[in-house]
Write a structure and sequence with these properties.
The structure is a homodimer of 392-residue chains. Chain A is of the alpha/beta class. Chain A is 40% helix and 20% strand. Chain A binds a DNA duplex (30 and 30 nucleotides) through α3.
Chain lengths: 392, 392
DNA sequence: ATTAATTTGTTGACGGCGGAAAATAATTGG
DNA sequence: CCAATTATTTTCCGCCGTCAACAAATTAAT
């Protein structure tokens, strides 16, 4: 029943996944290192690695690179690394007016990118366009199809990965769409669906700033302001599909009206369009997009003040995240962060002021994000599914 | 090396804990039911139960109570329940001016209560008083000492259960106190330490409204406003010991000054003393405590309005919790809730207004809490430790 | 050079534990 | 009393991880 060309997931059980992800996220590691990190015995590691190496997913590092500070006595370690080109994954982020697709290898390194604008948001049109986009991507190299691991799709809104349903997506205007089934039949590929912010969080968890953290949060600043949470070894999905909605924390009863109907939400102060509106309003300048707003702010104190106010709101939101779940790190990402120097000071000051006690020890990590990174997040979801099929 | 009279933890491994907690939290259950709930095979359940029954922790229900809607064909099930009197636990909540202690059975039913006021907050004095309090409690019945499972202690502030340290407690003015070690040597009992709100959350998780929920939050409204979180099968402790600090979410830049230095925190609007101050201020009445404030509000519209404003702030905080982690349920507890009818309407309205999408589906459960319940929470921590020693 | 010490990696025996299937038990409904 | 049905127990089997012994590869010391 297996379609030809789809690689079989390499792992047999939980231990296999554990060992594999340890190597995947921890760079080249000797078997002994893996044993220490996982808490398994050395014997168990050897046994778990055997089939993974046989199937080509793990390879021993050829050049021992003996220079690195070692020179200890004893048999030298032979580090093992993931063979990233062993299989490939596709990820597509669906927005209201565009599809962004990537192909990545096993380590989520982007190998190919394609965008495709949407002329219609009708479900069948989106599915058709998505299938075409993925086909185009996979046609870029024979290897992609030859050893394909899975397709990840991310959508903003309320999404259920288990059933593969888009329960509600405001941007697309969808309700109760069995998106995974539709995409799977249209493409013939194994498909996994996830919320867009959570997909990004998965990417950070395994391939980004979340590696090694017991808990972390990803805060995205863009049109909206969102937050992905990784707590107690897992991503928080919310009992009803909603989690990490920090965009509408109200900070100022007299603040600007938000589209949600309340006043002074973070999003209504620090969202991209809020910033643009505010800059137009206070300076009278005709700024077309965020880039020109940033440009303007370099010389115009009034515009700069708008960014400072936004930075204040973001700092408050970060403090709320830190006080709430006490993550080890918070990764702040977004397009606007290209202008990080404009926010930075204000964000950190406000965060420090409002973080409660030891919550302030939480590390703030800035990570500017391109649109392609969102699609990479979707691919990361597919990778995670491929490696740990059991994990929710 | 085991002190005489301390019962040995009954479980061998993870499966044993699982089966035992399933029976403990799920009331009397047949082995077949347990198999379904845990996902184990029936055979595994039988095998896991054997040693637990032999040791007297589980007993078969004698009276099959055959009335209950059953009357199906086939061999009747023999429900198994926890033998609650098999062993006893003590729990002590330490506040700035009082110790509250209880003895409970294995099901966290309170068997004995004692309070003891503190004349000094010096560490050694508190330890001495605590040991005396526990001794008094255990002296109330021979059974307590004869089959004693463990002592749980809860303290407000930043607490590390693993090391047994009170890292920082504002109310006691302690820093880096190795409290578990001190109490253990003073009492000769096995001791477990936990943050007070998290201890309460453990009690709800196993013996209260959290039973069966994949995620829930406990919001406590009292002098301070706090929140315990249960997410992804575990309680959230925060990487730096801080989590669930919702008391200082700022909702109103022009609101009253909070002791934390900012304006308009939830705590500065809806905390007990904030309510009292506000009522004195607006009505000029001399209210001594919350009870008389409630009394007054029954007839005085101005006082009632103060409660409504507090209810609004609480509703906002609940919405923030729901939007943030999307729990299945939120348990709201506190002394002030005796006057729930004063808050209720406003809390629910505000919550519904500010909960984002499906986050509003979260169930709000009211559970008035006595001070003894806090001590019971500490005992619950000891129970949990007794049953699942491996779990963090 | 030889040997000892040290660390890594492999192999095989052993045991715990959970599942599958068969056996046993206890009822209901003929 | 016999079938049907559901609960529980028993027996057997296989997976998987640890332990202990061993093989490998290198440094340090003699």
């Amino acid at each position: 029943m297996r379609s030809p060309g789809h690689s079989r997931p390499p792992v047999a059980g939980a231990t296999g996944s554990l060992v594999f992800t340890t190597v995947l996220t921890g760079g080249p590691l000797s078997r002994a290192d893996v044993a220490v990190r996982t808490g398994l015995s050395a014997a168990a590691v050897t046994k778990a690695m055997k089939p993974l190496a046989d199937a080509g997913y793990l390879v021993e590092v050829e050049e021992p690179a003996a220079d690195l500070g070692s020179r200890r006595v004893g048999r030298p370690a032979t580090p093992v690394r993931v063979h990233a080109e062993r299989c490939y994954f596709a990820g597509v982020k669906v927005t209201g007016d565009e599809l962004i697709g990537v192909v990545t290898d096993l380590q989520a390194t982007v190998c190919a990118v394609r965008h495709r604008s949407l002329r219609s948001r009708a479900v069948e049109d989106v599915v058709t366009e998505l299938a075409a986009l993925v086909a185009d991507l996979l046609d870029e190299s024979d290897s992609y199809r030859a050893s394909f691991g899975g397709l990840g799709v991310s959508v903003g809104g309320d999404v259920d990965p288990e059933s593969g349903m888009v329960r509600y997506s405001p941007f697309l205007g969808w309700r109760q769409v069995p998106f995974v089934d539709l995409v799977a039949t249209a493409t013939g590929l194994p498909v996994r669906l996830e919320n867009d912010v959570r997909a990004l969080t998965v990417a950070e968890q395994w391939f980004g700033s979340g590696v090694g953290a017991g808990s972390f949060a990803v805060v995205t600043v863009g049109t909206g302001i969102g937050c992905g949470l990784f707590v107690n070894e897992r991503i928080v999905s919310g009992a009803h599909g909603v989690a990490g909605e920090i965009g509408h924390l109200p900070f100022d009863r007299d603040g600007p009206l938000c589209h949600c109907g309340n006043h002074g939400c973070v999003e209504a102060i620090a969202g991209n369009s809020a910033i643009l509106d505010r800059i137009r309003q206070t300076t009278g300048a005709e700024v077309a997009d965020l880039a020109s707003a940033i440009e303007l702010a370099r010389n115009d104190p009034a515009a700069r003040r708008v960014f400072a106010v936004a930075g204040h709101a973001i700092g408050m939101a970060l403090a709320a995240v830190a006080n709430f779940i006490g993550p080890e790190r918070i990764v702040i990402s977004g397009e606007g962060l290209a202008a990080y120097d404009l926010f930075s000071e204000q964000i950190r000051t406000t965060f420090a002021e409002h973080a409660f006690g030891a919550a302030g020890d939480c590390a703030l990590i800035i990570r500017p994000l391109s649109f392609d990174d969102w699609a990479r997040g979707a691919a990361a979801v597919a990778i995670q599914r491929f490696i740990a099929p059991h994990t929710s």
